[in-house]
Design a protein that fits this description.
Distance between the termini: 36 Å
Largest sheet: none
Shape: globular
Number of helices: 9
Radius of gyration: 21 Å
Structural class: mainly alpha
Helix content: 55-70%
């Protein structure tokens, strides 16, 4: 090319190629996140699902020892596995999204790395850990006869995905918001613990007074837990849920989360 030749204009990237690039970016961020979070000592990345498994088993043992009342005659072990695993799926995600950008500011010199990729890599890792823990515990307790195998797995998969989407959307929104308002980071964790009893993990909606059911069913996370439990316990319980309402809530949270992430992205300064 001679100095007189015009510089060719950059060609627009196709949607398929952009998707392929972002998948590689997110996967690279996931691989980077694993050793930085869990290290290379002891069992390393296995803490990804061993940690939520220990929490779930501890809660199961505690509920069994204290003969906790959950409003039905269902086995407490099965009730705890299906309930607390669901809580871990969405509750830990916001903690990983808070302050996620600050330690990764140098990565934003790469034009293909954006704040949404940082959030997605962290949240995918969290969802993978909670999901692996849940599957392992269900298979284990089914194999020793403490839990009846579900008949229609697709309903459980769909309910689990809906809960994961709820956790993703909530985390992206509060994660991005915390970059601009420090108070969000301070208040989020205590608020999550305060709202934990309303997650549906420790009670059945049908066991609540009718007046209380109306308010509890406004919480999307409760609907997801009820939907999953219906498939595990079938006719033993009366499940209350409206997955269309939950989908609308997730959609609204998605739009809010993307808007907040876009606003934060414009203010990020690489270091």
């Amino acid at each position: 090319m001679t100095p007189a030749d015009p510089v060719p204009a950059p060609q627009p990237t196709s949607l398929a190629r952009s998707w392929a690039i972002q998948r590689r970016v997110i996967w690279a961020l996931v691989l980077r996140e694993i050793p930085s979070r869990y290290g290379r000592h002891n069992i390393g990345f296995l803490w990804l699902f061993v940690e939520p498994m220990i929490f779930t088993l501890a809660v199961t043992a505690l509920w069994t020892a204290t003969r906790s009342v959950h409003g039905s005659s269902l086995p407490i072990v099965a009730f705890a596995i299906t309930g607390y695993s669901s809580v871990l799926l969405w509750r830990n995600m916001p903690n990983r999204a808070i302050g996620a950008l600050a330690p990764n500011l140098s990565l934003f010199y790469h034009r293909n790395v954006r704040p949404i990729d940082i959030y997605l890599s962290r949240l995918l890792l969290e969802a993978a850990g909670a999901t692996t823990s849940f599957v392992f515990l269900v298979v284990f307790f089914c194999s020793i006869g403490w839990l009846e195998p579900p008949e229609y797995i697709l309903q459980i998969v769909f309910g689990w995905i809906m809960l994961a989407c709820f956790g993703f959307d909530l985390s992206a929104f509060f994660g991005a918001l915390s970059e601009r308002f420090e108070l969000v980071a301070k208040l989020l964790q205590p608020t999550a613990y305060i709202l934990c009893p309303l997650s549906g993990a420790a009670f059945l909606v049908d066991a609540l007074p009718t007046e209380g059911q109306k308010y509890v069913l406004l919480l999307p996370k409760v609907l997801g837990v009820e939907y999953i439990r219906e498939e595990f316990f079938g006719s033993q319980i009366v499940a209350h849920y409206d997955m269309g309402y939950m989908a609308l809530c997730n959609l609204a949270l998605t739009l809010l989360g993307l808007a907040e992430v876009a606003k934060t992205s414009r203010e990020v300064i690489p270091e």
